[in-house]
Predict the 3D structure of the following.
Amino acid sequence: MQYRQHRYPAYFPVQVRTAAGTQQAQVKNVNQNGGCLHGMRHLCRGDKLQLNVLSQWVDAIVLWVDGNRSGIAFRPGLTTHQLDTLLHRPGAPAK
């Protein structure tokens, strides 16, 4: 069994482009290789998508879907700067 690298909690709103159009979603957890999106509709395993991070489109592929949650893998992986941006948590709930 292959284990994935630790993912860090995130609450980052992103714009996502798919073959069906553009949607808004939220990155819930992330590392340089992948993450979990919340709020996406009409996705299937294997779909290709792009996330807008720092005004740059990052390519990803859908690994799994469960309702409006989906696991994605970045192809290629995120840069350190992009990862740090997603972990900055601008959409985090107030404490």
The chain has a mean pLDDT of 88. The radius of gyration is 12 Å. Strands lie at 8-18, 21-30, 34-38, 48-53, 56-66, 69-74. Helices lie at 80-86.
